[in-house]
Amino acid sequence: MRRLIIPLWPLLLLAACKEDPPNAQQAAVKLIVSFNFKAGCIAVQARDKDVPEREFSMQLDSTDPKLADRELVISIFRQDDWGRNLEIITAAHEESCDGAKVVSDTKTVPLDTAGVREVKVALNATDGDGDGYVPTAMGGTDCDDDNANVAMRTFYRDGDGDGYGGADMVRGCTAPSSQYVARGGDCNDTSTEQAPGRSEVCDGLDNDCAGGVDDRLPQLSFYKDGDGDGVGAGPVMTGCAIPANHVASGNDCDDTDIQIKPGLTETCDDKDNDCAGGVDNGLPVATYFRDADGDTFGKDSDSLQKCRMPTGYVTNNTDCDDTAFAVNPNATEVCNDVDDNCRSGTDEGFNKSWYRDVDGDGFGRQDVQVTSCTQPAGHVAPTANFDCDDGNIAVKPGAPELCNEVDDNCVDGVDEAFTTGMTRKGAACGVSPCTGIYVCNAAKDNTTCNAPTPINYYPDSDGDGDGASAAAASVFCSDQPAPPNASTSKTDCDDADKYNRGNSTEVCDQRNNNCDPGGLVDEGNVCMGAGWNALTGTTIDGRNWNTVAINKDSATGYPVWIAGANGALARRASAGDPFTSFDATCGTPNWNSAWVSSDGSVFLVGSGGQVAQHNGTNCAQMHTLTSGSNATGIIGFEGATPLRYVVDETGHLYSWTSNTAPVEVDDNAGFYRDVHGFDSSQVFIAGQNPGSGSSSGPLMETFTGGADTSTMTVPGSNNSSFRSVWMVSPGLAYAVGDNSNIVRLQGTTWSALTPPASANYTSVCAPDRSSVYVTDAAGAIRRYREAPTNTWTPLYTPGSALPLKDIALVSPTSIWAVGPNGRVLHFPELP
Description:
With 831 residues, the chain is an all-beta fold. It is built from no helices and 54 strands.
């Protein structure tokens, strides 16, 4: 129920523009309530006639001055969600709003037109004596309506029959039974000893029900007498009578002992008998000494003055050890490291010297002597020569001298037998360039040279742990750090390729991994029939694939994503799995480039400036570059805040972080085709200069942060473009493009490489300096190896000229390439 104050008249209707039917503010009720007796409360309830639960109410009690005139004027509005018919219920109560309801009225008022409906209600009741109470016969509580002093009476149950009732009461005109009386206030209705008006007596009760036990009676002071000697102690207690075991005197100094209280005679019993503040005070005393061992001789430093000899005390004080019964002035001295007779010291006439022999070699230390009647453990009798190292059993007089930096025989110093001759300790020795001196050998019976061992190191250019087989050695000493890029072995047949070295294991990667003397590649059936093969299937066929991307943070490269024209998108989750199609899940642009993050999500860029992320389940985000131009390249970097760079064919560079749209970094006039970087500190952007003639050649720019890119000088022919760029390390990068253009960055300079054939090169991928893979528009795949060989190796040649657009790999054991007309190549793959 909602309890809301209903506005009291006057009422102002907001009816400037009438509505039919009116709204909640355009129709109201003016309720006039009159009553003819001194009502204690008027209650008004208004509610929706059709839905009674929708209601509000008000109450005015006898404290409200508005009841004085015995007429109320109240304005009532219906609520917005109510129907058009109001039901108004008014009621009058005696005494208060919780008193008896003596008269009520219910009226139904329609509010179907604008305006005010006046409703009058008369709440009339009989109140002959004008005391505000209606006769009981008419639903009120007045027992005598001719007498204003008589209303309904209160009767109290008198359980103990003493004429006063307790808290159990009833109201009515007459008592319900003889057990009820008109007087209340009994504080204990179960005892006739307690009732209003009773006289207070000393019995531990509140006899007069005045709120106090034994109040207004004379109070006495008394004390607890614990030992029953007639004198108490402790805190004073008060009451109208002295209880048992209590007395009026309270100066006992020990209420637990009947032999102690003021006035007793002091006796020699270690007590303060008279409570005068002293034990045995006033009695004659003597000095007694503690005899702890019971030998009748006491300890001089432990004494008492008492009126009698205490137990465990004697009058003699000459004991020198009161913890030993056998030690006292009457005992006989024996050799036992004890002063038995308490005179002339310990073991007089029995002294003997012993020397400490810690290592147990039979020779003691001259500087550690002990005097004892018997030989102590770890000690020996004096010898002609003493031990020079009592912590080593091998060191003693007469021991053989060893080469060990120790004076083994305790004569002539340390290692005296090894300090002369060509091989004496400290003499120079060694093999050039490693030198040293003679030192004691491991057997300690001679000297040996401590010069470090010469070690041959061979250049290891590719860092595979094996040096070039034809390389000359550089000699280093074993105590020197190993030189960089070097190895102690020299069995590498191709020191420009880290995947080939002597005694390595052959794997399926089109290389001579184990340096087979015959130059065999992938021998021993390591590929098990797999090779360069095209994948087919409903998820691959019939689509123009433009890009392939792999998870570079995975050892296997999986998952592998391929993307292409008209929103073509597919993923291979792991080796041997079929590709799963996600065509058009991120729209239908022509996807031109892709990059895979460490969590396996793929980031795509394509036609119309469309960019997107697919997490393997759905398209997680899609955006459009502000230029609206075809996006052509993307590279990403992991970190606390993942960062991706995107380029488009109208020369715009964008940064792309988190789930926000890419933000433009720079706007240039060139045609951007690709972007790549080793880390986020620097990226290269490859493409073509705008214009014609000499100004339309390949374009290479670098971006290291800030607001602008920087243009770099690169070789190349007119009217040609770089199509792909790859950064191997901060000082090494490759780019390929039209008209047989292949260039390499070494340090800060780009130079041309001799191409393996005349072709338009489409993509380059270089996970390391010995693995530079290149595709061309005729569908061939070749690998370039760095110096010293600087050679090209053909890996794949199609049966007919079928173009390839992109290549990707983590290691040579899994290489992917894609192109139009459903071209998806993988090495190694079973036919």
